[in-house]
Design brief:
The protein has 310 residues and is of the alpha/beta class. Helices cover 43% and strands 19% of the residues. The chain has one domain: Vaccinia Virus protein VP39 (Rossmann fold). Strands 1, 2, 3, 4, 5, 6, 7 and 8 form an eight-stranded mixed β-sheet that branches. GO terms for molecular function: S-adenosylmethionine-dependent methyltransferase activity.
């Protein structure tokens, strides 16, 4: 994710929803242990604060220092800045080492990662027995019949400025690679769809739009999508500017575990057994004694006698 200014980070924090606590409860029920969780791309800690209710220690990392400064503080959450130049080995050591993490969460974040690097690290640090990785994204917001059509026009206007990374989010992670085995909560190409309830003020909503990645990308190219005209339209349809609305973000989740890898020696053994069985059957066919010429003549006589009797 691109670095946000101090002001943008503050607006982002105000508008970004808290994820339902029930999510963490359901996911945690499927991990074998509850000692360590890693919230990667933590932002300002929305997922980390939920994880700490179910795990003894939470490591929360992010590339964005401005957001980390506003992260929700907790005695069992350790926040760390992870700049782009950190090596895989350094990240592995920072979060706890090989085979150490019970749950990895990437909330509204994984599409910004170098997926090859991230998945390599995830497979190294995730517990091979009972460890899980959960990713989710929200890509739409339902506010009201008056506001929603204006929001849709804004979303459509971002199309020329979207990057392939952004499209992973707009596609609800349906096109996102996910090399982990499903545990019944979504799978590669088939994320499960969920609602995130949130209370949002007009000020928070406008702040969210200005810190929204597609709008920021357009601004970098000299196009102000969240302009005064658009803001006026939102203000007119919102109603009382002090009104806090009950809104819903549409979210999409996939949860998985490390796929079982059969040992090469085990596969060779199985293939060898199959080959042995094949050779044995062939051998049995070859070892069956063939009748002699005299035995053949006797058999023919018996058959002829039976035919004449009929």
């Amino acid at each position: 994710m691109a670095a946000l200014s101090e002001k943008e980070a503050e607006a982002y924090l105000d508008a970004r929803p808290r994820y339902p606590m029930d999510w963490y409860k359901k996911i945690a029920a499927q991990t074998q242990d509850h000692k360590f969780a890693w919230d990667v791309g933590t932002g300002s800690g929305q997922a980390a604060i939920g994880l700490v209710e179910h795990y003894e220690n939470v490591v929360a990392t992010d590339i964005n220092e401005a957001q980390l400064k506003r992260a929700v503080k907790h005695s069992r959450i350790s926040y760390h800045h992870t700049p782009k130049n950190m090596s895989e080995d350094e990240v592995v050591a920072l979060v706890g080492g090989e085979n150490s993490i019970d749950l990895i969460v990437a909330a509204q974040a994984v599409h910004f990662f170098d997926l090859t690097t991230f998945y390599n690290i995830a497979k190294r640090v995730l517990r091979k027995e009972g460890g899980l990785i959960a990713i989710w994204v929200y890509n739409d917001i339902i506010i009201s019949p008056e506001v929603d059509p204006i929001m849709k026009r804004l979303v459509d206007s971002t199309l020329p400025f979207r990057t392939p990374i952004m499209n992973l989010a707009f596609d609800s992670y349906k096109t996102l690679p996910f090399p982990f085995k499903s545990v019944g909560m979504g799978s590669e190409g088939k994320p499960v769809t969920l609602d995130i309830p949130h209370k949002l003020s007009l000020k928070g909503f406008i702040g969210f739009l200005r810190s929204w990645q597609p709008a920021m990308k357009a601004k970098e190219q000299g196009v102000e999508l969240v302009n005064e005209d658009l803001i006026n339209k939102f203000e007119e349809t919102w109603g009382d500017e002090n009104q806090v609305k009950d809104v819903f973000y549409k979210a999409h989740m996939i949860v998985g575990k490390i796929k079982e890898v059969k040992c090469e020696s085990e596969q060779v053994s199985k293939d060898g057994n199959k080959d042995l069985l094949h050779r044995t059957e062939v051998g049995r066919k070859q070892e069956r004694p063939q009748p002699s010429d005299e035995e053949n003549r006797q058999i023919k006589k018996q058959i002829t006698s039976k035919d004449e009797a009929c």
